[in-house]
Amino acid sequence: MKLESKIPAGPLEQKWTKHLGSIRLVNPANKRKYEIIVVGAGLAGASAAASLAELGYKVKCVIYHDTGRRAHSVAAQGGINAAKNYQNDGDSVHRLFYDTIKGGDYRAREANVHRLAEVSVKIIDQCVAQGVPFAREYGGLLANRSFGGAQVSRTFYARGQTGQQLLLGAYSALIRMVGAGSVEMLAHEEMMDVVVINGQARGIICRNLLSGQVTRHSADAVVLATGGYGNVFNLSTYGRLSNCTAIWRAYKRGACFANPCFTQIHPTCIPVSGDYQSKLTLMSESLRNDGRIWVPKKGADAKRRPGDIAEEDRDYYLERMYPAYGNLAPRDISSRAAKKVCDEGRGVGESGLGVYLDFSDSIRRLGESAVRERYGNLFDIYREITNEDAYKAPMRIFPAVHYTMGGLWVDYNLMSSIPGLFVLGEANFSDHGANRLGASALMQGLADGYFVIPYTIGDYIAGIKPGSRPSTDAPEFVAAEAQVTGTVQRLLSVKGRQPVSHFHKRLGKILWDRCGMARNARGLEQGLREIPALREEFWANVNVPGDGGTLNQSLESAHRVADFLELGELLCRDALSRDESCGCHFREEHVDAEGECDRNDDDYAYVAAWEYAGEGKAPILNKEPLVYESAKMVKRNYK
Amino acid sequence: MRVNLKVWRQPGPHARGEFKTYATPDLNPDMSFLEMLDVVNDELTLKGEEPIAFAHDCREGICGTCSLVINGKPHGPHRAVASCQTYVRSFKDGETITIEPFRAKPFPVIRDLVTDRTAFDRIMSVGGYVSVRTGAAPDANSIPISKIDSDRAMDAAQCIGCGACVAACKNASAMLFVSAKVGHLGLLPQGQPERYRRVLAMVNAMDDEGFGNCTVTGSCAAVCPKEINLDFITRMNRDYLVALVQEGVGRKGAKEGAGG
Ligand SMILES: Cc1cc2nc3c(=O)[nH]c(=O)nc-3n(C[C@H](O)[C@H](O)[C@H](O)COP(=O)(O)OP(=O)(O)OC[C@H]3O[C@@H](n4cnc5c(N)ncnc54)[C@H](O)[C@@H]3O)c2cc1C
Ligand code: FES
After folding, report:
1. Rounded CA gap, A543 and A497, in Å?
2. How far is it, in rounded angstroms, from Cα A332 to Cα A81?
3. In the prediction, which pLDDT does A274 show?
4. Prediction ipTM score
5. Do B56 and B103 have their domain in common?
6. Averaged over A377-386, what is the pLDDT?
7. Is B188–A159 a contact, with Cβ atoms under 8 angstroms apart?
8. What is the reported pLDDT for A207?
9. All domains of chain A in start order, with CATH
10. What is the pLDDT of residues A310-336, one digit of tens each?
């Protein structure tokens, strides 16, 4: 397949403005003749659906949740970046662009990242106008904090609930258009397939989660904003329901899947406590502003109470290894450092898989009430889960799967390799390269939804004849529906001896061991043998109780896990083929003298866009070369 | 430890429901309440029985999906948490724990412990927003907002839309939910132009959905996972009266204030 990134010509700083001036427009009176399906109502989907409806398009918004306000964007804690330079600390669009490119270890597309930095400033304006109650200073102006990988304070926040507040803002915009009759909301509907007719995305197939009814929906364009696929690892900071089904089925219809192995492992999560565990809870990175991370210098001290370990026997390893950024080193680097000290036998807690995040210095410096004001809700969460008081003893934290930089490949207009199928937010691959900086996913989701897709989709729509929407009786619709009902029947009829969760746990363990924080060829090859075997076992031995005609949560998760079992294999395949280390992708064979990533720009400065080749066939690797016109590809240095 | 679960089972919206009791396997006290249900469900599956349907997603108290009445209390024994933030260690070994769905007429049961709370969306769609088109916003710092107002707005905006307030209220009133949204936007300059139109529309929609009157017993605030304060209801009642005067319209029940 030939991938056309459609990056506009001209200097980096002018690409977006020039592009806006040259893309085709759709006449306002014609817009209502076009119907766009938006799947998802997280930050990306809700902002897109609302903005497209405001422009006059007919919009159908499909979600598996009962309401848009439950999308997992709601769980984001820390904040959202924007190059406002309100702190006068030297921030600028260029600096945000540069930090993001460098943070992504030079594996992101330059033009997209620059556009993201440009529109970031408008996002904050938009959100404030909607009534998002961002934190403020006493003078009444907006407050900021710092996040990893940046030396300026450009992160806007609403206590520890930034994602919730931004989502409620986007949801309010969406619900306003629902009230106005411009958006039809389909809740409790899971998109099960994309319908492609003559090479274009022309609709979707949904399954109603309450009635089991399978329905066909035709459209002039389809937008997927279905979030990340980190639950392929089973344990993660995602909501339990987050899944890959929408993008995976689109992949099987011809949308390339880019950089699937780029998954972010977040350094500050509450450690695993037992095998019943269903999810991992993030402790926001913002804690690293005031918390210091350490382990004992000697493994022999690891089981002692932290308070009994003298200052000189502690190793503040991030401050030691990365003095310039210290506890605010980027996520991939901090996670790996935690793994390293635990591998050395210095990890704390019962399992030995934990490091301390210690607030005693800040409490001494600022007082407990100031620390409470900043992080009170996070300390509360920590207490609920662990039954420990972090004001008195340090928190124990460990890395956990948190975000997927990979996703469906999109061009500069956010269109996938299936014309008419657009992909926004975490579901696409475009802006974060091999590692995402904190507070940049919320920014990207809202940038895509509010400020990119409303314009770029016009360029595609303008080429479609109004009223040419296919009938849902078209053979492609009938066939896709039959495939969905077939899969439902197949899952229900296995009636094996293991619940769905059994397979999900085992898949997660394989991926964590083989394709987690550190990877090597042997392990990945092993993973590539283990996953297909597990998949076979799933289809022979899974037990999905009940029927397909009522709310059946086992059936829901069986679908999702079946797709994860396929996607997991692609993760390993991608990680194996990328024979270099970069960002989150740490190949043990490629380590420099200081133990850091040994990136190989000569051979791997490309986006790996995998193309489905059919059942049982190896997927095809397409490469989009990454050409840097402005940023210089240098070694990432946070020392 | 082990406990017994007395669980409301109802196969569908129109089917009859009943309590069934299940003995759990050995539990780790550090398990979350929902993880306990996961374990019980896996056992039921292997025994060829249908697992217990319950709503959940984030499992960290922010999405508002989980909605269990545990031993008669929405979201269980502890203050200021959602069902998913309840842990097995809060119960006694051998205890029988009763688990029911959020019960209220406007929240019909879908299955077992899952209810339909889309009535909240319909209330939101008539006014729970500031009408601002994408791209039309002025610079974010052009209107300073006092930290006190913005903090108070945030206190209200934290609502997770779970509906525990409705489930706790003997009248199934949605006043706490509606007043949180009205209060959040009403405290901010951006919310002023639509302030009175909003409160009228949302209170009317709440009535139309069949939510009951508020008789200020405070049971809603007592179970709210985000501790939304009853003051917001007072605020809303005030705004509602001003709105009535401004609009010069009467409505049924207006004499009783915004009791809804
Ligand atoms: C715990 C946590 C904390 C985070 N903190 C931060 C932070 O501080 N700053 C930051 O920038 N980022 C943060 N992130 C990342 C960020 O929150 C996410 O990347 C972002 O919100 C994803 O938004 P989205 O709109 O792409 O997807 P989501 O919000 O996940 O929305 C997905 C939507 O798609 C729908 N959907 C999915 N599949 C289907 C289907 N098949 N059929 C129908 N509907 C479907 C769902 O119903 C949902 O509405 C955090 C992430 C987590 C997990
Ligand atoms: S599951 Fe999200 S609040 Fe409980």
Report:
1. 6
2. 19
3. 84
4. 0.95
5. yes
6. 89
7. no
8. 98
9. 266-401 (3.90.700.10), 475-600 (1.20.58.100)
10. 999 999 999 999 999 999 988 899 999
A388 touches chain B (CB under 8 A): no
| pLDDT(A201) > 60 | yes
Phi then psi dihedrals of residue B209, to 5 deg: -75, -10
The DSSP 8-state label assigned to residue A210 in this structure reads T
pLDDT value for B257: 47
Report d(CA B107, CA A98) in Å as an integer. 50
Q: Which segments of A272-414 are extended strands (E)?
A: 292-296, 314-315, 355-358, 395-404, 407-408
Cα–Cα distances (Å) from A347 to A315, A336, B139, in that order, read 11, 13, 47
pLDDT tens string A95-137: 999 999 999 999 999 999 999 999 999 999 999 999 999 999 9
Same domain, B95 and B129: no
Whether A249 has a pLDDT exceeding 70, the answer reads yes
Q: What is the DSSP letter of A231?
A: G
How does the average pLDDT of chain A come out, rounded? Answer: 96
Q: Which two tokens stand for residue B24?
A: 């759990």
Q: Which two tokens stand for residue B106?
A: 């406007």
Q: Are B119 and A99 in contact (CB under 8 A)?
A: no
> What are the CA-CA distances from residue A635 to residues A104, A556, A592, B200 (Å)?
12, 44, 11, 60
Task: Tell me, yes or no, whether B36 and B91 share the same domain.
Answer: yes
Binding pocket residue ranges, ligand 1, CB within 6 Å:
A 39-45, 62-65, 71-73, 75-80, 162-163, 190-191, 225-228, 237-238, 242, 245-246, 282, 402-403, 425-427, 439-442, 445
Query: Torsion-angle region of residue A240: left (phi > 0), alpha (psi -120 to 50) or beta?
Result: alpha
pLDDT in tens, A583-600: 999 999 999 988 889 999
Give the pTM. Answer: 0.97
Do B128 and B248 have their domain in common? yes
Question: How far is ligand 2, taken at its centre, from the CA of residue B62, in Å?
Answer: 6
Q: Which of B63, B89, B111 is the last residue of a domain?
A: B111
Which tops the pLDDT comparison, A381 or B99?
B99
Contact A36, A440 (CB under 8 A): no
Pocket-testing residue among A64, A231, A237, ligand 1, by greatest number of atoms within 8 A of Cβ: A64
Whose tokens are 């919206």? That residue is: B13
Residues A610, A250 contacting (CB under 8 angstroms): no
Q: What's the token pair of residue B253?
A: 């029940």
Q: Are residues B125 and B18 in the same domain?
A: no
Question: What separation in angstroms does the CA of A551 have from each of A498, A564, B5, B11?
Answer: 20, 21, 22, 9
Specify whether B172 is located in the same domain as B93.
no
Closest Cβ–Cβ partner in B87, B118, B126 for A67: B118
Based on the structure, what is the number of domains in chain B? 2
- A3 CB contacts (<8 Å, ≥6 apart)? A256, A409, A411, A417, A609, A622, A624
Cβ–Cβ under 8 Å, residues B145 and B188: yes
Name the stretches of chain B with pLDDT < 70. 249-260
Partner B contacted by A185 (CB < 8 A): yes
What confidence category does residue A153 fall into, taking pLDDT thresholds of 50, 70 and 90?
A: very high
Q: Are A203 and A218 in contact (CB under 8 A)?
A: yes
Ligand 2 shell residues, CB under 6 Å: B 56-59, 61-66, 82-84, 160
pLDDT digits (tens, 9 = 90+) for A41-84: 999 999 999 999 999 999 999 999 999 999 999 999 889 999 99
Three-state secondary structure call for residue A335: helix
Nearest by CB: A239 against B63, B128, B161: B63
Per-residue pLDDT for A439 more than 90?
yes
> Could you tell me what percent of chain A has a pLDDT over 70?
100
Q: Same domain for B46 and B124?
A: no
Q: Quote the domain boundaries for residue B162.
A: 118-259
Question: First vs last Cα of chain B: how many Å apart?
Answer: 46
Residue B259: predicted pLDDT: 45
Q: Cα(A173)–Cα(A183) distance, rounded to whole angstroms? A: 11
